[in-house]
């Protein structure tokens, strides 16, 4: 399905409209609970909605057509655009595409493909990009490549950074990238969990092949690698295919690149998303898929930025870092005093002026003369700062009011925040309408969502996240839909509103699987929407099968009106009013330990194992940072014992890493060999599919995701799905986590007795009936089927990976019957069986055990085949 | 697409820094002005002035650092005012004695008008003298000035204003009557508008020819075997040197102009034009100055006191030249001539650009961790306080005493003569564009 426009010729190409797709939703929940009420792209960054930065930057690059793809809170985004200058301007044309039931980037791409609105090369960005990059060179390079070779479908923009702390600062994960030095073609894209692992990988690569030391700008980085290379060791070893080097003279293996998530795509990219319906994330699925399927010949290239700024606001850490970068003018011309951004409201258009020390004040501010305004500060119009305040490194929105003698450092106060006297606040994010009582202290890392009230003289503990929305936690045994009704009923009864669209916080564990279950149910209730907010790519661990299954966390999209009313009274009302509603307030059950007496707000627990210290709005504490980054330095003292696989320090360092959540490995410890880990992961994934009664297609998606993440073949998956099916006929083996225990039968039929054999076989038959189709989908060729038979052999003989768990021997006497069942169930074809037999003919006597057992079946098969051919002959 | 949208779009482009260079900004502003004058209907000069000023203020506010925008707006206003005066003069002469002044050729500048008999008073009151140099236009209009010329001015202005006011009032009255009788019909255009448009077209042509005009004077300023020192890239300077190289043999020393390093481009282009070129680091400027015969630089704007705003680093070059008593010549088109003083609070002298040109982004991360060491404690606030603050200003201000000569499209002038040029190109009432607007809003 190549685009048919090729015939159009040069003129059609000439007037190709430069289009950008701006994803106004990035499908994760890093900014909750703020995003429960407002989409992330409308979150103000230095007093300007995030979306504006991306739009301005695209406009700066003379993009003619911008499609804003909205999922969650689409109405709010549309309203914002309607108010803004964008719809009034001739160029660029900004239009919205609304698709409320998309839950991942992949689905968004497929929906765009269906709508068939994109014809030419397009720029794909998320709505949280802040950049001043000139797209010209990257676009020109992409088009030039695409003209030469239409398989060059995508150009990814990356930014080099040599300082390891940069990632910590931006809240990014490490990345290993292999590039062809001459063409900048991407050969490998691997998100790494810890810098230590990255160094180890680079060291492995250095040992494995030539390294590119020719590029001059990259010299320091080169050195850096060697430095780490000496001590690099980790429980994770990343392998680079030797074939990378076989065809090329020079390969760069780099860990210094930060992915900006800006990509230039050919329209084929949309087609590929449609063809591979299971692709969800751009990086984890699409890029990994394209790179692994080299035989398709699709190529991805990289564009490395030099000196230009590009960053994403994908979590609170980067929100803080990017705000500071903006104030320090790194993204010029996107600095407050150019007043590029449109502003409406009572204080009129943006009117910032620059003052020494990176201070930006709008024209009408009411700062007391005795207030000390420090560096890196932006103050919106109408803000009032009381006597004796010390304010620095902060962003104050319009109409913010600060009492006397406050100390505000590193805080983000959105429009209309009210702060009493003698308040100390540092490194916190206070959303619109927050009221802080006099004498209160806001500790670092605190996030107060819309309308929260903090009582006087109360200290909000560090890293507390408070919202007027209540997070509702329920057992997952309720299906999504049931839960939906439950909460809808609650909303309508309490506020009289019609049932609101519900926000789904499906990934209590940051895993991808629970979300898939939503995807499944979404086909039934397409009106529901996700209000996820930041991209899944970096945080989601590919194998987090153990998380998020016990808890289903749900929240309402709006705080209850009672809570809002109570908060308003507590914030501004007089004593009588407060006394009046005292009863109601106690009924509402606000989290007093967080907001204090006279405060309003509920705790919003972070359930997804996301390290609060590392990714909060406050800079991470030094000790933690040291721990993460110098864990390998500690090991350095031990000398160059690089073969010593898992030192205790490294294990600790790796385990603390946010990305490190691979369930199987976590439980099994680092000692397990990767094959066993993979077997268990496939097994667990499959078991979950069984437990949650996934439709077959969804199960395929799950397993495919795992396959891509682990870079395995279809046969690998099929093997372990198959063994898991066999194990389901027996009592629960040791490696399975208890939650799936109920799936297994309690008793073990005695396979030596005839009854026992029959029972076992009927159980397996049942399994095969249910999941045979799934198995078939993973058996792509005859070779795969042979592979499966060999696995069956191993399983029955308790060899290889199955050595630890000898339950498979129960099936040993039934080998021939199993073979028969597989054949009858059309899982394994005759040709595969014969070629397996042929292969085994030449094996050692000891390995022929199962061949002998199935001799009768094989003979029957041969006979049947001859009969068939006879019949065919007779037909002629 | 209506005009206001167009203006808004142009403003956005200015704010985004999409239009680079004072020449491009000046040209675009002139085009917007032409569009404004040609497409909108204006019954009289006053309404036209009002319109031009409103739009002009908006444009200038979009990029305060680009003084060229305001300059063009003032030039246009000046043209309109001149035309208005001409009209009034004709009207008054028509009513009293048919004078000879109106029959004379339409002098483009005030200077020619000043020497015309009969218009002496006019020219005199418009000329800038020490006594009224710093007067605000409001003062002279109010007749509060106590100086002799001030009184004269006030008297003349009062007379003119009264006459004009009467005429206008009568005109307006008539028009209103006309309008009320025939509703729906657009008000008639101001009759002299076409002259303004013509002059504006001339201005646009003039803008296009500016660099050539300057370059033509090159041979008068560059002599054989001289060593010319220049700083960074400037199109005007390049054309000037190229033109000179057709007749003369000389050497050019180019300072690279960190952190933008456009001196590299300059050196390359000069070498391609077969000029003997040497590239030096900025830090070598002082040492190299001893060998130079002349310094030639381009500028961003010329201010009312004869000082200039030029790319960052030029001040250092000017000081070095002064120390060695080397002539410091600034090549500048007269569209860069601004009637504002450097101490004017309205003048934004500088544009602080991205530190990315100066240092690597990584510097932030280094200081990020170092700054964090101050934790723990309540003063965790101090984190990142140690962070390096990186500044990258775009411009320098060079005071007039360091400048030997301006070479403009109309010839060479010393800084002391700048005030005179101002009087020729701008009307005093327009020196401040937006202050008046604010005053009017207050009223």
TrEMBL record, chain A:
Alphabetical list of InterPro entries matching this protein: ARM-type_fold, eIF-2B_epsilon_N, eIF2B_epsilon, LbH_EIF2B3/5, NTP_transferase_dom, Nucleotide-diphossugar_trans, W2_domain, W2_eIF2B_epsilon
Disordered: region residues: 203-235, 488-553, 634-671
Low complexity: bias regions: 488-498, 521-545, 636-649
Cellular compartment(s): Cytoplasm, Cytosol
Entry keywords, A to Z: Cytoplasm
Gene3D superfamilies: 1.25.40.180, Hexapeptide repeat proteins, Spore Coat Polysaccharide Biosynthesis Protein SpsA, Chain A
Biased composition, class Basic residues, residue ranges: 218-233
Any coiled-coil regions, as ranges: none
Subunit-structure text: Component of the translation initiation factor 2B (eIF2B) complex which is a heterodecamer of two sets of five different subunits: alpha, beta, gamma, delta and epsilon. Subunits alpha, beta and delta comprise a regulatory subcomplex and subunits epsilon and gamma comprise a catalytic subcomplex. Within the complex, the hexameric regulatory complex resides at the center, with the two heterodimeric catalytic subcomplexes bound on opposite sides.
Annotated PANTHER family: TRANSLATION INITIATION FACTOR EIF-2B SUBUNIT EPSILON
Family to which the UniProt record says this protein belongs: Belongs to the eIF-2B gamma/epsilon subunits family.
The name this protein goes by in its record: Translation initiation factor eIF2B subunit epsilon
Organism this protein belongs to: Tetradesmus obliquus (Green alga)
Automatic annotation (TrEMBL), chain B:
Taxonomic superkingdom: Eukaryota
InterPro entries noted in UniProt: eIF2B_beta_subunit, IF-2B-related, IF_2B-like_C, NagB/RpiA_transferase-like
Signal peptide start and end residues: none
Coiled-coil regions listed in the entry: 193-220
GO molecular function: guanyl-nucleotide exchange factor activity; translation initiation factor activity
Any one Pfam family match given in the protein's UniProt record, by short name: IF-2B
Subcellular location: Cytoplasm, Cytosol
Family: Belongs to the eIF-2B alpha/beta/delta subunits family.
Entries under PANTHER family matching the protein: TRANSLATION INITIATION FACTOR EIF-2B SUBUNIT BETA
Subunit details: Component of the translation initiation factor 2B (eIF2B) complex which is a heterodecamer of two sets of five different subunits: alpha, beta, gamma, delta and epsilon. Subunits alpha, beta and delta comprise a regulatory subcomplex and subunits epsilon and gamma comprise a catalytic subcomplex. Within the complex, the hexameric regulatory complex resides at the center, with the two heterodimeric catalytic subcomplexes bound on opposite sides.
Name listed for the protein in its UniProt record: Translation initiation factor eIF2B subunit beta
Organism expressing this protein natively: Tetradesmus obliquus (Green alga)
Lineage: Eukaryota, Viridiplantae, Chlorophyta, core chlorophytes, Chlorophyceae
